[in-house]
Amino acid sequence: MDDVLMQTNVLEYLEAAVRQFPHRIVYQDDGDTLCISEVSDGARRLATLISQKVDLGNPVVVISGKNLQTPVAYLGVVYAGCYYVPISTDMPESRIRMILDFVAPAAVIVDDENADWLKALAKDFPIILCSDAKYVVINSEELACRRMKQADDDPLYVIFTSGSSGMPKGVMTSHRAVIDYIDAFADTFDIGTDDVLGNQAPLDYIAAIRDIYLPLKTGARTVLIPKSLFSMPKQLFDYVNDHGVTTLCWVASALSLCCEFGVFDEVCLEKVSKVVFTGSVLPTKHLRVWQENLPRALFANCYGPTEVTASCSYHIVDHIVSETEVIPIGTPFNNSKMFLLSEENEMVPAGEIGEICVYGSSLALGYYRDQRKTDECFISNPLDEAGLPRIYRTGDLGSITSDGVMYFCGRKDSQIKHMGHRIELSEIESTAQFMSEISHCVCLYNDEKKLLWLYYVGEEVGNKEVALHMREWLPSHMVPRKFVKLDAIPRLANGKVDTVILKDMMKA
């Protein structure tokens, strides 16, 4: 671990890989590949172009799809001594513009496929095409100068997630946090040169940092699986087999979908030996199907929000589960610690429920340009124990066994997990109330059917108009599937929403 402690920048992964295996393929998509030396060369060319336009230490937005240019663009931003802000191309343009205005980036990098529409949307910011760097002469002296001025606690990226106020919140994460997480994940699951990672997550999503940085550290290969295949499980399994994928780090909903379509009855996964599920706990009835069809594979559940660099704990499932079994979120990775706090900021004993709190070097730096929210969630040690630094209050509830294994027990607030994403229901409600016709609304989640419902009160507006409005402002995974117009929102005597009545309506 001594060499790990000396690392201060994720680029050290790439530079070590260039020395060790320059011609090894690390990224592959449906039609092309990139070896280590090509990644390094492309990133440094792009960094030279960025350095001509952007000062050290500034945010640079990257808008690029699920393609080989995207990780190169991220690394190019880092080589330029800046931090990247990935924005999904699947977001509505109104939401992209909202984030652009909030970040006020020093530049926007875009791939060729998305360049035309972005030029109109981001005309207030300098735009750099990924392809413009192709023939740039690398300025090694300038890049080296910028590198010398960086530290391990400098930001590496800002990833935006759902926010309770109606504005997405930007989670700012350092080089140190990512280095410690990638090192811990690689060690825990023995990721090496023989591993082929089947990428499921969009590259702008927190889960994708494994698929981007693990190959640079270990010499593994990441295969970018087309998004469309995750709605066609048979073709998905064929693709996984054709590309020799050995390791799946997928959100639980993607694994469940394969079971619901009965794809194992048609296709066997030939080389998959590791299955790590994230985002939420995989239902045991689906986990059992995977276990029975891959009896020699390792299965593990990982837990953790964006604020703790993707995952802070894991649990290896070492037996065939029963359908009534509860899968724990487990024990912390190296360099992370977890404990439970009561409402009175006291340590919760084993067997009781409290708020899951995390500390360690994998914590995010805070929320971008939101000190109030940062101070609310990233707090100093309330237990006053020596050596316990700043902690993150997750808002998740948990319980812990006497031997230190933790279980997830729900949320303190209205945040939910849907399709692998943490969603603030209050953001959906705030977005609905952008419409002047809507006077009141409540968003609820039907956990059994995995559907978002929006109940609303509004004059001269119907479900179609509300749905169109929501699609204009929210990414697809946040748009409710059910809209119900009411004369009034049912409330209890204390004024709170009567969720029992509304949930009964879901069952009707």
What is the end-to-end distance?
A: 57 Å
CATH class of the domain at 8-173: Alpha Beta
Question: Which band does the percent of strand residues land in?
Answer: 25-35%
Find the count of extended strands (DSSP E, 2+ residues).
Answer: 26
- How many helices? The count is 16
Low-confidence parts lasting 5 or more residues at pLDDT below 50?
Answer: 1-5
Looking at the structure, the CATH topology of the domain at 8-173 is: Rossmann fold
Question: Helices and strands in order, then pairings?
Answer:
Layout: H1 2-6, H2 11-20, E1 25-28, E2 33-35, H3 36-51, E3 59-63, H4 69-79, E4 83-86, H5 93-103, E5 107-110, H6 115-121, E6 127-129, H7 140-148, E7 155-161, E8 169-174, H8 175-188, E9 196-199, H9 208-218, E10 221-224, H10 233-242, E11 247-251, H11 252-260, E12 274-278, H12 284-293, E13 298-303, E14 313-317, E15 331-332, E16 336-341, E17 353-360, E18 366-367, H13 371-377, E19 378-379, E20 391-400, E21 406-411, E22 415-418, E23 421-424, H14 425-432, E24 438-446, E25 451-458, H15 463-473, E26 482-485, H16 499-507
Parallel strand pairs: 1-10, 3-4, 3-5, 5-6, 9-10, 9-11, 11-12, 12-13, 25-26
Antiparallel strand pairs: 1-2, 7-8, 8-18, 13-14, 14-15, 16-17, 17-20, 19-20, 20-21, 22-23, 24-25
Helix pairs in contact: 2-3, 2-9, 3-4, 8-9, 11-12
Q: How does this structure look, described?
A:
Among the domains are: 8-173, ANL, N-terminal domain (Rossmann fold, 3-Layer(aba) Sandwich), CATH 3.40.50.12780; 333-411, Luciferase, Domain 3 (Luciferase, domain 3), CATH 2.30.38; 420-507, GMP Synthetase, Chain A, domain 3 (2-Layer Sandwich). Helix 2 packs across helix 3, helix 2 runs parallel beside helix 9 and helix 11 crosses helix 12. The strands form six sheets. The protein has a nine-stranded mixed sheet with strand order 2-1-10-9-11-12-13-14-15. The model is unreliable at 1-5 (pLDDT under 50). It has 16 helices and 26 strands. Strand 7 and strand 8 form a beta hairpin. The protein is globular, with a radius of gyration of 23 Å. The protein is of the alpha/beta class and 508 residues long.
